[in-house]
Design a protein that fits this description.
Number of helices: 11
CATH superfamily of the largest domain: HAD superfamily/HAD-like
Shape: globular
CATH topology of the largest domain: Rossmann fold
Number of strands: 5
Distance between the termini: 12 Å
CATH class of the largest domain: Alpha Beta
Strand content: 5-15%
Oligomer: single chain
Largest sheet: 5 strands, parallel
Strand order of the largest sheet: 3-2-1-4-5
């Protein structure tokens, strides 16, 4: 149901605009290292690898060296690491980009993603290949990325920072994310939310807004 107060829409990236499958990355690193996927996931969790890279605590070279260290693979190439890391990024359906273009005629659009610089480079390649759009920044007024902000969802500070920086009122802002914790924390700062749950996509959730 459309909320007539909405003037601004903030989108998550993974499984909202771009299809992803997070476990594929640990599977890819397992294939590189000869370790079981469960062991890779345990190593990544204990090393806090995702959070450190996605909040900017690690830059790209440090991230790659850390991967080599924790997997005990000193000769692993940058390309092999990036390919495995990016393997969780799947396709970007062109019809979702068309929806964004249509919505941008009526609403201020923003992106807010927990992500890394390596992923964003690859996402822009996927975007261009599938839609001809050069980069995410061409679809949104501002692209807010966790590794640049030093904060990750569901930390409520990330939402207040977006609202303040963009000059948005929470009650006029709609946020779409596939993660329930992220939705909950955005709601707690007064933002309207939609919990995106497959197989339903933003095409269905936002059909009333695109009219």
């Amino acid at each position: 149901m459309k909320n007539s107060k909405i003037r601004n829409i903030i989108f998550d990236l993974g499984d909202v605009i771009l299809n992803i499958d997070v476990p594929i990355a640990s599977k890819s690193f397992g294939e590189l290292s000869g370790k079981e996927q469960a062991e890779i996931m345990k190593i990544f969790k204990e090393s806090d690898l995702f959070r450190q890279f996605e909040t900017g605590l690690l830059d790209e070279p440090t991230f790659r060296n850390y991967v080599r260290e924790i997997l005990n693979l000193p000769d692993l190439s940058d390309e092999a690491i990036d390919t495995a890391w990016n393997s969780l990024l799947l396709d970007l359906p062109p019809e979702r980009v068309e929806l964004l273009k249509k919505l941008s005629q009526k609403y201020r659009l923003f992106l807010l993603s927990n992500t890394s610089s390596i992923h964003i480079t690859q996402v822009n390649k996927i975007l261009k290949a599938s839609t001809g759009v050069e980069r995410l920044g061409d679809l949104f007024e501002t692209v807010f990325l966790s590794y640049e902000m030093g904060l990750m969802k569901p930390d409520p500070r990330i939402y207040t920072q977006v609202l303040e920086q963009a000059g948005l009122l929470a009650e006029e802002t709609l946020f779409l994310d596939d993660n329930a914790d992220n939705i909950k924390s955005a709601s707690e700062v007064g933002i309207e939310t939609i919990h995106v749950q497959k197989p339903v996509t933003i095409l269905e959730y936002l059909k009333d807004y695109a009219v």
